[in-house]
Design a protein that fits this description.
The structure holds 3 protein chains of 3 kinds.
Chain A (H helix, E strand, L loop, with lengths): L1 H16 L5 H29 L5 H21 L3 H8 L1 H4 L2 H14 L5 H8 L5 H23 L1
Helix pairs in contact in A: 2-3, 3-6, 6-7
Chain B lengths: L1 H27 L3 H17 L3 H8 L1 H4 L2 H19 L1 H29 L7
Chain C lengths: L5 E3 L5 E9 L1 H4 L9 E2 L10 H19 L9 E6 L5 H7 L6 E3 L6 H14 L5 E8 L1 H8 L15 E2 L2 E8 L6 E6 L14 H20 L8 E4 L3 H14 L8 E3 H5 L10 E2 L1 H18 L4 E5 L1 E3 L3 H5 L6 E3 L1 E5 L1
Parallel strand pairs in C: 2-3, 4-5, 4-6, 7-12, 10-11, 10-13
Antiparallel strand pairs in C: 1-9, 2-8, 6-8, 9-16, 13-16, 14-15
Helix pairs in contact in C: 2-3, 6-7
Classes of the chains: A mainly alpha, B mainly alpha, C alpha/beta.
């Protein structure tokens, strides 16, 4: 009982002691880097539509995302993306490029354990929950939509 | 002029969404996996209640490039599939709509994992 | 029941040789000029970082044997540890040698633990020359405890940087060098911190406990030592320790310092400082040993701490227990 009290007091003391960083520089960095990544996306999309006017809007978006994923995956491979991430934080995590980075980085990291047990098994250690939550929540939405459509 | 305005909106909204992510990281100490999950769920929700298309028309890449757009296409796909295939659509819709992104991420990750080696941080 | 914890050594084994090997970033740090060997890159000519860590430990052992002007045949036993699961780096490094091996694990306190165990073994009269060796590698620790290297995330302001490096020393009754005079084995202490990015706060109570016990059992005070060195509490952790000791009425003054806090230069961006088993091992076996031999310090209290967590225990939401072992070195 006494231990619990002491631990609580200690935790409180420690959280007061933790150095407070000024949030504004990182917030600003994440803002402009995130904005630039979105701009690149828009640019790629417009360019695709310009070159291939027959593309439907939806396929153009799909191509755009694939291009962004490719770029992010490549930058991860050559060891640049983690430096962007260190600088921008959320700015490079939230865009689809962050998703790509979180799949590529464990694959590269665990390459040393072989192709099957390294690359393939560890590929989703970070991005797995994104796909699981995404698919499960979309199924919930679909189910609700289906039930409503019955009436 | 029109194009400039579009790009400005893309930049501002895209940056704002990413800044929200950073704000979450700073205030809650979330790891990047949790951030991604949160934003995917937001996307699914926005699409499910039918707001996403309005935002998307306005913000374009500003909302589609962030992982929110990924969530929205999951929900959009599932709703479309339920309309055309009924109950089966609940299972096929989401992944069909996002297959391009997921396959690209897996494929490129595999490719680059074969080529590159992890670098020590400086 | 009498709680022993502190042992006053009768034969006082000497540290007759010490050797350190570090990575390039560490070589650029504050202790750079004192290290015996600075690697050109973190891979050390090996395919994987794990293999590099093994090779580091291996060359630390051969290096120290050479430096102490002994041959492999003179060594009776090797005591070593590291941070990887099942302390593979040490065991695999020991594979290359023909002497018995004792694996010890005390996370970042492993250096003190191995020296403490080694001195007690010698004091008991069973062994003549004991090699103690400890090391860690940033890239292997990072992937075992945290995230892949290429993941673009930010490090929280309380996080510390695992040192790439290995240190080793030879304890013996014959020869010249600083003497190990007292040993205090620490208890495992847990004050309920569960933030893995704040190891300093988790480990400071362990130092407090061992330090209080040591001062009481040996009837000494901070003023009796030229230098009191903790392992890798880092900037935040050492501030916490000073506060904790203040509460007990003990003032840690200018003769107190922390290896982790001093390790890197300010522009190396390591936030709260260095950590890892290699941190205090490399400082102890390079800078501290050199300064003792020069005569700048006559009596040092060395208290590295270890956070005894695993990736699994963290994911299950457990708090972080820590341990701190103290050794006193006199010239």
């Amino acid at each position: 009982m006494e231990d619990k009290k002491r631990n609580e007091a200690y935790n409180k003391y420690v959280s007061a002691k933790i150095p407070k960083t000024r949030p504004w520089p990182t917030l600003f960095n994440s803002f402009w880097v995130g904005g630039v990544i979105c701009l690149i996306g828009q640019g790629v999309n417009d360019l695709l539509l310009l070159i291939f006017p027959s593309l439907s809007e939806q396929s153009a978006w799909a191509y755009t995302l694939i291009v962004l994923i490719f770029i992010a995956s490549f930058l991860t491979g050559i060891g640049v993306y983690d430096q962007i991430g260190k600088f921008a934080g959320g700015g490079s995590i939230v865009p689809i490029t962050g998703f790509s980075n979180s799949i590529t980085s464990p694959s590269i990291e665990f390459k040393s354990e072989g192709i099957v047990y390294g690359i393939c098994v560890k590929m989703f250690t970070i991005a797995g929950p994104v796909i699981v939550f995404g698919v499960v929540s979309s199924m919930v939405v679909g189910l609700i939509y289906w039930i409503i459509s019955l009436f | 002029m029109d194009i400039f305005l579009t790009y400005l909106i893309v930049f501002l909204i895209g940056g704002f969404v990413c800044m929200l992510g950073e704000l979450l990281i700073i205030t809650t100490n979330m790891t990047s996996a949790r951030i991604l999950v949160t934003f995917v769920l937001i996307g699914v929700f926005l699409e499910a209640v039918g707001v996403f298309d309005y935002i998307s028309d306005f913000a374009k890449a500003g909302i589609n490039v962030p992982i929110v757009g990924f969530g929205a296409s999951l929900a959009k796909g599932v709703i479309g599939a339920v309309e055309s295939q009924g109950l089966l659509g609940v299972f096929t819709g989401g992944l069909t709509a996002t297959a391009g992104g997921i396959a690209a991420a897996i494929g490129f990750a595999f490719l680059f994992a074969l080529i590159f080696k992890s670098h020590t941080k400086k | 029941m009498k709680l022993v914890q502190t042992i006053i050594l009768k034969k006082q084994p000497r540290i007759i040789g010490s050797y350190t090997i570090v990575g390039p970033k560490e070589g650029n740090g504050n202790f750079g000029p004192y290290f015996d060997y600075v690697m050109k890159d973190d891979c050390f000519g090996e395919e994987t970082y794990e293999k590099a860590e093994r090779k580091m430990l291996e060359s630390a052992v051969t290096g120290v044997i050479e430096k102490a002007k002994l041959s492999v045949k003179d060594i009776d036993i090797m005591i070593a540890g590291d941070l990887l699961n099942q302390i593979v780096s040490s065991s695999y490094a020991a594979r290359a040698f023909q002497f018995p091996f004792l694996g010890v694990y005390g996370a970042c306190s492993t250096m003190a633990e191995s020296v403490a165990v080694g001195s007690v073994l010698i004091d008991g009269g069973y062994f003549d020359n004991v090699v103690c060796c400890t090391g860690s590698h940033f890239s292997t620790a990072e992937r075992q405890y945290r995230f892949p290297l290429e993941l673009g995330n930010q490090r929280p302001p309380t996080s510390q940087w695992t040192v790439t490096g290995a240190g080793s020393c030879i304890l013996s009754l014959k020869g010249e060098g600083p003497r190990v005079t007292m040993v205090t084995f620490g208890k495992v202490i847990d004050w309920g911190i569960n933030d893995v990015n704040n190891m300093g706060a988790a480990m400071a109570p362990a130092v407090r406990d061992t330090m209080l016990r040591h001062f009481k059992n040996t009837k000494t005070s901070p003023n009796d030592y030229d230098l009191i060195v903790t392992g890798d509490l880092g900037k935040l952790g050492s501030e916490i320790l000073i506060d904790l000791m203040e509460d007990e009425g003990i003032t840690l003054g200018v003769n107190y310092c922390d290896c982790g806090q001093m390790y890197f230069k300010r522009d190396q961006k390591t936030l709260c400082g260095a950590s890892g088993a290699g941190c205090c091992a490399t400082v102890f076996n390079s800078y501290l040993m050199a300064k003792m031999r020069e005569g700048q310090y006559k009596k040092i209290l060395f208290l590295p701490t270890g956070a005894l967590l695993s990736a699994t225990s963290t994911q299950q939401g457990d708090t972080i227990p820590s341990v701190c072992h103290a050794i006193v070195i006199e010239m």
